[in-house]
Design brief:
Layout lengths: L1 H21 L11 H10 L13 H5 L9 E8 L11 H10 E8 L6 H6 L5 H15 L3 E4 L15 E2 L2 E3 L3 E4 L5 E4 L7 H5 L1 H27 L7 H6 L3 H20 L4 E4 L6 E5 L2 E5 L8 E5 L5 E5 L22
Parallel strand pairs: 1-2, 2-3, 3-5, 7-8, 8-10
Antiparallel strand pairs: 1-11, 4-5, 6-7, 9-10, 11-12
Length: about 325
């Protein structure tokens, strides 16, 4: 345990050094400077270098298909978008929503981060665009079901109501094309910290926000060096043994409850770790998040469940151009 904490502390220390380097202006040229590559390599764990920092193979296999293709699914599950926070990857999510359609769309909690918005208002245009895109999908015939989480728990009081063709449910049951019954719930009700030590959950959320800030700077550097998105924050989190044990206990609690409810498995979010696996005879599915993993759970028309990682933009936003003021012509 002590060794794990020391290891995580070492990684965080190097992350701070890296973010200090990122504070230099783009005009200084650090993006193309070989020393930037060296700094990136020095930050990596033993046995890795900047050239090999690609996402895991399962993420590579799940990269988006050829540009401008529209994929159609029976169902899509999204959670932990955290609109209202700087860590939200709204640009990637908009790109995903543009290129993927479904008969059903489940929003599995923490869509809007009420915790952060109470501390300070942050709502750029891209976050508003995400809300408008979701409402547009609902108007065009997609069945959108919103299952609130702990960060947007205020919406739970509207269970059973519909807003803009989006239906709010505390939990839902999804039946796949193969007949499997899946219990859909955010998962925070099975998190002992959230339920019994709310102050500790708020403290952890504040520290997590700091790590996500480093993650944004880290990936800005990776983009300048031509590398795809890679979650620094997720890597750091999974180096701590207690975090790994917590995730394992959470997964077990979720599938046990799904079995008790007469379901064949569970679809949840909350812990920001996308995964599909059989556990104790039950199907455990976590759709990940849109601050670290950039992932969604999808069901194909044949009933196959897959994790899709959207770490490459098919339609990158156009670079901002400065408008030159035209000199007034006087006669």
């Amino acid at each position: 345990m002590v060794q794990a904490i020391r290891s995580a502390r070492g990684y965080l220390s190097r992350a701070v050094q890296l973010t200090q380097r990122l504070g230099r202006s783009p005009e200084s040229g650090w993006g193309s400077d070989p020393s930037s590559v060296a700094a990136l390599t020095a930050f990596m764990p033993p046995g890795m270098d900047a050239a090999t920092l690609a996402p895991p193979r399962e993420q590579q296999d799940a990269y988006p298909p050829e540009p401008h293709a529209i994929h159609r699914y029976r169902a899509i599950w999204l959670s932990d978008i955290h609109l209202g926070t700087p860590g939200c990857q709204a640009t990637y999510l908009l790109d995903f929503l543009k290129h993927n359609e479904s008969d059903q769309l489940y929003l599995v909690g923490d869509i809007i981060d009420g915790w952060q918005l109470r501390r300070g208002w942050y709502w750029p245009q891209s976050h508003n665009d995400v809300v408008q895109k979701l409402l547009r999908k609902a108007r065009k015939g997609t069945e959108v079901i919103y299952v609130p989480g702990n960060h947007d728990e205020g919406a739970r009081q509207f269970d059973g109501m519909a807003f803009g063709d989006i239906t709010v449910r505390e939990e839902a049951i999804h039946v796949t094309a193969t007949g499997r019954r899946l219990w859909v719930v955010h998962g925070d009700l099975f998190d002992g910290v959230v339920q019994h030590a709310r102050w500790l959950a708020y403290l952890g959320d504040s520290l997590y926000t700091m790590i996500l800030a480093m993650n944004r700077h880290f990936n800005r550097l990776r983009a300048r060096l031509g590398f795809p998105y890679w979650s620094l924050s997720q890597y750091l989190k999974h180096q701590v043994k207690n975090a790994v044990n917590y995730i394992s206990a959470f997964e077990t609690a979720m599938v046990d409850e799904a079995r008790r409810r007469g379901c064949d498995g569970v679809v949840c979010g909350h812990i920001h770790k996308a995964e599909i696996r059989e556990l104790n005879g039950q199907l455990y599915c976590n759709d990940g998040d849109w601050v670290e993993s950039l992932s969604a759970l999808v069901e194909t028309m044949e009933g196959e469940l897959k994790i899709v990682y959207w770490t490459t933009l098919l339609d990158p936003p156009a670079p901002a151009t400065r408008r030159r003021r035209r000199a007034a012509v006087t006669s």
